[in-house]
Amino acid sequence: MKLTRKDFLRVLAGSAVAVGAGTLVHAVGSANDRESAEAKNGKKRWGMAIDLQKCREEKGCDLCSRACHRSHNVPRLPDPAHEVKWLWNEPNGKVFPFQQNDYTRHALGETVPVLCNHCTNPACVRVCPTQATWKRGDGVVMMDYHRCIGCRYCMAACPYGSRSFNYVDPRPHLGAPNPDFPPRTAGVVEKCNFCEERLADGKQPACVEACPRNAMVFGDLNDGNSPIRQLLSGRYAVQRQPELGCGPSIFYLV
Q1: What's the pLDDT band for 14 if we cut at 50, 70, 90?
Q2: What is the pLDDT of residues 125-142, one digit of tens each?
Q3: Domain at 5-253, CATH class
Q4: Residue 129 near residue 153, CB atoms below 8 Å
């Protein structure tokens, strides 16, 4: 029997899945087990649900990212190759590469807001040699800019591209800086921090407050009575590549 190129690729893909299945199942299982343990211990686990339908109603809106970047002194650099991003929009094909077909494309919208997923099992934390990035007890994945040595291992490990590197000194490009949040320096990695400084004051993240249609809902995923849990219980939601076992805390309502 003649083996076509299509048949060969199908067999090759099946073999790869079989070889990696054990590792994948273990990774996903680890993330799920950790979520269950945290819920039983009464710990908070902050998460966010983004209503893509509401986002589409405000086509071209970027108030969430503007509020985020303004609050955290994210620079606007003239060279696109040096761009620093905490919250931004990506084409849905890049955000959900394995969910592309004629029937889901409209549900996901043309572009999707993306940020750090504050994973249950963050790959970035595991590879950092100086513990400059770590996960707090409430699920927020943090950065210590003083410990960061700029090796960018965390950027290579993150499957979502949620981290930026300061190739140049960002401080001259801040315009009117926010004095309440420290600016970074050249040679360090940075990313969304779930507005941990606002959480400490009992406030919602800046992006959530700035959204004109309340398309972003933030809350405790371990609290069954929280607004985010009520929302996730009544709507279908997707995560970015959950099969990788990282356990994203960002959910997209479709």
Answers
A1: very low
A2: 999 999 999 999 999 999
A3: alpha beta
A4: yes
